[in-house]
Amino acid sequence: MDDNNAVKVSAALIWEGERFLVCQRPEVKKRGLLWEFVGGKAEPGETGEEALVRECREELGITVQPERVFMEVTHEYPDLTVRLTLYTARIREGTPTLLEHNAMKWIRVEEAEELEFCPADVEILAAIRRYAGNVLRFGEDGTRVLLPGSGEVRSVVWLHEDFETACRIRELMRVKDAALALIPGTDWDADLSPWPAPGVFGGSSGFSGGAGKHLETLARDWIPEAESALSEAGRPLVRVIAGYSLAGLFALWAAAGSDLFDASAAVSGSFWYDGFAEWFRGREISAKFVYLSVGDKEKNARNPRMAKVEEAGEAILTGLKEKGIPAVFEKNPGGHFRDVPERMARGIDCTLSALYGN
Prior knowledge:
Blueprint: E1 7-16, E2 19-24, E3 35-36, E4 39-41, H1 48-60, E5 63-76, E6 81-93, E7 103-107, H2 122-132, E8 135-138, E9 143-146, E10 155-159, H3 163-172, E11 178-182, H4 188-191, E12 196-197, E13 207-208, H5 211-230, E14 238-244, H6 246-257, E15 263-267, H7 276-281, E16 289-295, H8 309-322, E17 327-332, H9 340-356
Parallel strand pairs: 1-6, 10-11, 10-14, 14-15, 15-16, 16-17
Antiparallel strand pairs: 1-2, 1-4, 2-3, 2-7, 5-6, 8-9, 9-11, 12-13
Helix pairs in contact: 3-9
């Protein structure tokens, strides 16, 4: 198989919750009525990302933002050899509309077995099953737990993350015996803010301070139901809460406002939140370990409130040391939104390793 003569094809892996988008080829085309990922051949001079954006616009009327290469495969058909690059991508504008394909569906990983795909996609589907499979679902609200690939569940980490980001975090983590529990239906400005505060961007309605009610629901409903399904014969699990940005602030607030969690990982947390550092230093903390991080460029934020994030993080760290609670405060390269899954995986790994005594 000669890759040099292969036709270069770009395709998109687009997630909506735990479902991804697939399309059925027109009956009149070769491999007609087989299912595939949206995309097509690169034109002369196009990069793979440029080809993907153009093809998604032509085939579904949407504008996508390619994020990273999920997988590359080479497949030899009787009439041509294709070099297929599958990108994870997000829809920036538009709603998928059938412009060329016969049909389209949003499917879960396990539903792919019900459809007949182009042969080039078979290897990719196996990789997606490894990446996004092994999910425990329960409750009317659709709470989901991403289980480890194999072996026992030693710990459960509660997250406010979308499904695809959580899958990426699980893939990147070194600790492989942790289940990731995704907290459903979150209104970030309401549910994750500890008390009312002005918004930080123009036109924002501000933070309404609903964290207390959100934590009550977590403690009353989601944690017991999820962990009763995960725990073997009532064996207790290590329980961690982790989050990014405002969810990182909530993770830290929850560790100070309850005894629910063995540890907290506040990754690029919104430590600047009005009055939080002072409030936190005055609280008793039952957590056995706290992980803190910021991007080293976050202190350069134009917003004067947000620019205090590193200073506030240092104050929180000082408070933890005064209480004798083991803690780490890491400064990652870059600004706030850089390498989110990588930073989350690092923070969770550090936290679990500390709890395990590794």
